[in-house]
Design goal:
By secondary structure, the protein is α+β, with helices and mostly antiparallel strands. The chain contains twelve helices and 16 strands.
C-alpha cells in the first residue's frame, strides 16, 4: 500500500539541492514519487513499504529529515528482551526515525518526523502487553534555526567591516591609507585582516566550507562548493602573499582578505533573509492551525471529560459549550446554536446549526450548546486541508 509522507528536511539551500534530493529518493525502489518544496524545506513522498530506508538514503545524501524528540512512559517491561520488543514496536510506527527505551526509568525516547501521530503509537502498543502511561511529551530543538542564522550573519558582518575598512578605505581616501601604512606598516595591517578573515571563515562561515568541500569530495558540488572555492581561493592566495611572498611573481603580491570575508558574509546574510521568509510562511500556516483548540470536551455516557484533540477518533461525541471553538470537523447530533464560520466564508453573520448540520474545526460556537459527532481528524479536516493549500500557494 502506497502512503504519502510530508516532512521537513535539513540543508536545502538552492535548486541544485532540490534536484539532488529528489534524485536520491527516486533512486529507491519503494519510492513512487517525490517532490521537494524549497520554500518550506519540505518533501512529499509516495512510498510503498517502510519509510526508514528512505530516511537513511536522504541522510547519506546530506539531506536528513528534520526531527524532534518525543518521550513517553511505557509500563509492563521487565527484562532486556522487553527493551528490544518495545523499541521494535515503536520503530515500526510511521514517522519514527529512532527509538530508545530505558528500562530503569521506563521512558521511551523517540526521534520523529512531521508525519508522526501520537495515536498511531498508541494503537501499536494497544495490541501488546506494554502500556503507554500519560501524554507524549514533544520537545522541539533547543535552538531556533533562524536565531542561529541571524547570530552567524551578525557575527560575520561585525568581523568583516574592519577588514573592508582597512583594505578598501585607502582606495576611497588615499590619505587614510597613507596614514595607516605610516603608522602601523603594511604587514601588520595585513596580519589584522588575516586574523579577522580567519575568524569569519572558521566561525560563522565554517558550515559553508564544510558542506561545500563535502560536496566536492563526493563529486556533487552545490552552491556551497562555489562559495568555498571562491572565498577559499582568495583567502589562500592572500595568505601566500602575506607569509610567503617570494612564491608569487613580481608585482603579484596583493591580498584579497576582504573579498573572502565579504563573500562569506553576504551568503550568510542571504541565508538569514531566506530563513526569515520561510519562517513567515510557516507562521502563516501555524496561524491557521492555531484556530483549532488543543482540547475537546468528550461525552462519556452522562458525564464529560477534557481530552487532547490529537486523541479524538472518528465517531467520538464532543460537546461544544457557548463561545467554544469547534475542535474538529463533525456533524451536529443534538442542540441548536449559531456558529461563526468566518474563517471559511468571510461572512460575519453566524450560521444556524441544528441536528444533521456540519460544523468545521476552527469555527466558533455561539450562545447555544451542541453535541457533535467527529467525522474528520488530523490531516483530513477542512482546516488542515486549507493550511496545506496555503502552503502550496506560498510555494508556487
Amino acid at each position: 500500500m502506497t502512503q504519502t509522507h510530508i516532512f521537513a528536511v535539513e540543508n536545502l539551500n538552492c535548486a541544485a539541492c532540490v534536484r539532488r534530493l529528489e534524485a536520491a529518493v527516486r533512486a529507491q525502489d519503494t519510492v513512487h514519487d517525490a517532490e521537494v518544496n524549497l520554500a518550506t524545506s519540505q518533501i512529499t513522498l509516495q512510498v510503498q513499504g517502510a519509510l526508514s530506508p528512505v530516511l537513511a538514503g536522504m541522510a547519506s545524501a546530506g539531506y536528513p529529515a528534520r526531527t524532534q524528540s518525543v518521550s513517553v512512559r511505557i509500563t509492563g517491561a521487565s527484562c532486556g528482551s522487553c527493551v528490544a520488543r518495545v523499541e521494535g514496536y515503536a520503530a515500526d510506527v510511521p514517522g519514527v526515525v529512532s527509538a530508545t527505551f530505558s528500562l530503569a526509568t521506563e521512558t521511551l525516547q523517540l526521534e520523529v518526523i512531521d508525519t508522526f501521530e501520537a495515536q498511531a503509537l498508541r494503537d501499536a502498543f494497544g495490541k501488546t502487553s506494554y502500556q503507554i502511561e500519560g501524554d507524549l511529551d514533544g520537545q522541539e530543538a533547543a535552538d531556533d534555526p533562524l536565531d542561529g542564522l541571524r547570530r552567524r550573519a551578525v557575527l560575520a558582518a561585525a568581523l568583516t567591516v574592519p577588514v573592508v575598512v582597512l583594505e578598501m578605505g585607502g582606495h576611497l581616501v588615499p590619505a587614510f591609507r597613507a596614514l595607516l601604512v605610516t603608522t602601523f606598516g603594511q604587514t601588520p595591517l595585513w596580519l589584522v585582516q588575516a586574523l579577522l578573515t580567519s575568524l569569519v571563515l572558521a566561525g560563522p562561515g565554517r558550515g559553508l566550507f564544510v558542506s561545500g568541500l563535502r560536496g566536492l569530495w563526493h563529486r556533487a558540488p552545490d552552491m556551497n562548493a562555489l562559495v568555498a572555492l571562491g572565498a577559499g581561493a582568495a583567502y589562500l592566495y592572500s595568505l601566500t602573499a602575506l607569509l610567503a611572498p617570494a612564491l608569487l611573481p613580481a608585482g603579484a603580491v596583493h591580498v584579497y582578505f576582504e573579498a573572502a570575508a565579504v563573500i562569506t558574509t553576504l551568503i550568510l546574510v542571504g541565508r538569514w533573509l531566506e530563513g526569515r521568509a520561510r519562517a513567515q510562511a510557516r507562521d502563516a500556516i501555524g496561524a491557521l492551525l492555531a484556530l483549532q483548540p488543543p482540547q475537546a470536551e468528550v461525552i462519556q455516557g452522562d458525564s464529560t471529560e477534557m481530552r487532547p484533540v490529537a486523541h479524538l477518533t472518528l465517531g467520538t461525541h464532543v460537546r461544544l459549550r457557548p463561545g467554544m471553538a469547534v475542535p474538529v470537523d463533525g456533524e451536529v447530533v443534538a442542540g441548536c446554536s449559531d456558529v461563526d464560520e468566518a474563517l471559511l466564508t468571510g461572512e460575519p453573520a453566524p450560521v444556524p446549526k441544528a441536528p444533521g448540520d456540519k460544523v468545521v474545526g476552527g469555527s466558533v460556537n455561539g450562545t447555544g450548546t451542541l453535541d457533535v459527532r467527529v467525522t474528520a481528524v488530523g490531516r483530513d479536516t477542512v482546516l488542515a486541508r486549507i493550511a496545506a493549500q496555503v502552503e502550496a500557494a506560498q510555494s508556487g
